[in-house]
């Protein structure tokens, strides 16, 4: 069955959408899945074995451009897709499959999409509390899955494919020689410092890990580079040589490969957190005002540290430098302890104990 998926536009959401692709393939191994998404998603989609090809969505996030969507849809008619899955909830995201005349168009009801979708599902948020459950549920007939409890267990979590040859080559290009095992930090966050663990806590943790024999690598986009430099500047002269800030200096694909090279990851609630989880890395995820109840890291090797409950819709922290007090209160010693436990468990597993 030829299948078109209209994918999401955020790193974390794109990673979680792989659970749908894995579900489709589990139900029908001969399914051919194409995913239309922003061009930057391609490095992630190329590492998902279930995806046949990534199709670039040329329109910017938020742009309606009805005529262009109609042109895109008509151009896709020759592909003879049998089913489309529309993952974003917006009206405009359902237009391309409609104009492509795809016979079955599946998605949650979302934003006034009657007619555009003809296999339309009404979402009960309490019945499907996790985003990954909502994605996976679309891979089954509507009448069979009424809640997350009806989904086959376990849900097929995202898993990215990276090989050792790639790790060796990309590590060498960033002068990561392997003399020290790497712990990666992802200190950025999409909405600024309110969702970031303070740089001085990252620096304290980095010092502890460097003293224990590790190399620290800081990941993120160009706008996260300054946060990485704040961490480096808080280190001693002796420690700073073992902390490499490559935020904004890698492609997304290089970042994926280098995260795969890490022994463990410490991260805020971010898109790269979901990448690390999909690589099955030992992972400590630090949450403050945002909640892990909807989009937690999907890995048995992940540990979440959060000191408050509920969801807090904040975009600005309530403490110095914009940090949120709930993240300030997470101490580096607690994170170090969690890391030690995860790394010890990983070592035992590798040794077959």
Main sheet strand line-up? 3-2-1-4-5-6
Rg over alpha carbons: 21 Å
Topology as H/E string? EHEHEHEHEEHHEHEHHEHEHEEHH
Q: Helix count, per DSSP?
A: 13
Largest sheet: 6 strands, parallel
Strand % is: 15-25%
Mean pLDDT over the residues: 94
Measure the end-to-end span. Answer: 44 Å
Structural class: alpha/beta
Overall geometric form: globular
Number of strands: 12
Overview of this protein structure:
The chain has 353 residues and is an alpha/beta fold. It contains 13 helices and 12 strands. It has a 6-stranded parallel β-sheet. The chain has a 6-stranded parallel β-sheet with strand order 9-8-7-10-11-12, with helices on both faces. Helix 6 crosses helix 10 (252-261) and helix 7 packs across helix 8 (225-233). The longest helix has 20 residues, at 332-351. The model has no long low-confidence stretch (mean pLDDT 94).
């Amino acid at each position: 069955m030829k299948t078109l998926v209209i994918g999401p536009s955020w790193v974390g959401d794109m990673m979680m959408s792989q659970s749908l692709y894995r579900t489709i393939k589990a139900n029908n191994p001969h399914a051919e899945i194409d995913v239309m998404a922003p061009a930057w998603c391609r490095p992630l989609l190329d590492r998902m074995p279930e995806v046949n090809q990534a199709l670039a969505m040329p329109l910017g996030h938020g742009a309606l451009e009805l005529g262009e969507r109609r042109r895109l849809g008509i151009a896709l008619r020759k592909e003879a897709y049998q089913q489309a899955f529309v993952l974003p909830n917006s009206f405009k995201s359902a237009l391309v499959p409609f104009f492509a005349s795809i016979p079955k168009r599946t998605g949650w009801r979302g934003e006034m999409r009657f007619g555009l979708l003809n296999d339309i599902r009404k979402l009960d948020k309490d019945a499907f509390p996790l985003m990954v459950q909502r994605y996976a549920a679309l891979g089954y007939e509507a009448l069979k899955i009424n809640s997350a409890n009806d989904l086959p267990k376990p849900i097929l979590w995202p898993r990215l494919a990276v090989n050792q040859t790639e790790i060796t080559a990309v590590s060498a290009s960033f002068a990561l020689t392997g003399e020290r095992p790497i712990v990666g930090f992802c200190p950025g966050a999409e909405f600024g410092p309110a969702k970031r663990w303070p740089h001085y806590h990252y620096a304290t943790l980095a010092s502890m890990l460097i003293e224990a024999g590790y190399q620290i690598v800081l990941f993120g986009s160009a706008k996260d580079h300054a946060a990485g430099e704040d961490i480096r500047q808080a280190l001693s002269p002796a420690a700073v040589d073992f902390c490499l800030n490559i935020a904004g200096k890698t492609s997304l694909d290089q970042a994926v490969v280098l995260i795969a090279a890490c022994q463990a990851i410490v991260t805020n609630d971010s898109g790269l957190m979901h990448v690390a989880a999909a690589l099955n890395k030992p992972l400590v995820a630090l949450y403050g005002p945002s909640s892990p109840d909807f989009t937690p890291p999907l890995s048995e090797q992940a540990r979440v540290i959060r000191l408050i409950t509920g969801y807090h819709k904040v975009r600005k922290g309530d403490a110095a430098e914009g940090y949120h007090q709930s993240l300030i209160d997470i101490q580096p010693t607690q994170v170090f302890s969690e890391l030690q436990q995860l790394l010890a468990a990983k070592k035992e597993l590798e040794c077959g104990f």
